[in-house]
Amino acid sequence: MKRLIEVANVLIQNCSSEILLLQRSPRLAHPYLWGLTGGIIEDETALRAGIRELWEETGIVESDLILVGIKRFLVETPSEDLKITNIHAKTSQRWLSVTLSPDEHVAYMWQ
């Protein structure tokens, strides 16, 4: 039986249409890879998980954002299925203050 993994990601777009990207810590799988905030959905909704992961990884809070949309999709592999929820949010600011969790990320950029 294949394993099902449920994850939530948050794509934040600023007023210049740039997206917040984070660089993974060397301690994690796929070190130094750039990507979105996100992680495993625990005993919560996908939206709550995305907002929680966003706060844990960047210090950004929900009140700084405007929810634009949510897309869900399934990625099937021979060994596991990934149920991915992408949360799209915007901010009216040029840049939000970001405080990285050093265990998870080593850098960030608006791109």
How would you describe this structure to a colleague?
This protein has a single domain (3-110), classed as Nucleoside Triphosphate Pyrophosphohydrolase (Alpha-Beta Complex), CATH 3.90.79. 12% of the residues lie in helices and 45% in strands. The protein is built from 1 helix and 7 strands, in the order ββββαβββ. The longest helix has 13 residues, at 46-58. The protein is globular.
Report the biggest beta sheet as strand number plus sense, adding barrel if it closes: 4 strands, mixed
Could you report the average pLDDT, rounded to the nearest whole number?
A: 95
Highest CATH level, the class? Alpha Beta
- The unreliable regions are none
Large-scale geometry? globular
Q: What is the H-and-E element order?
A: EEEEHEEE
Question: Share of helix among residues?
Answer: 10-25%
Overall number of structural domains: 1
Structural class: mainly beta
Strand content: over 45%
Rg from C-alpha positions? 14 Å
How are strands sequenced across the largest beta sheet?
A: 4-1-6-5
Just name the CATH architecture.
Answer: Alpha-Beta Complex
Would you tell me which CATH topology applies?
Answer: Nucleoside Triphosphate Pyrophosphohydrolase
Tell me the span between the first and last alpha carbons: 40 Å
According to DSSP, the number of beta strands is: 7
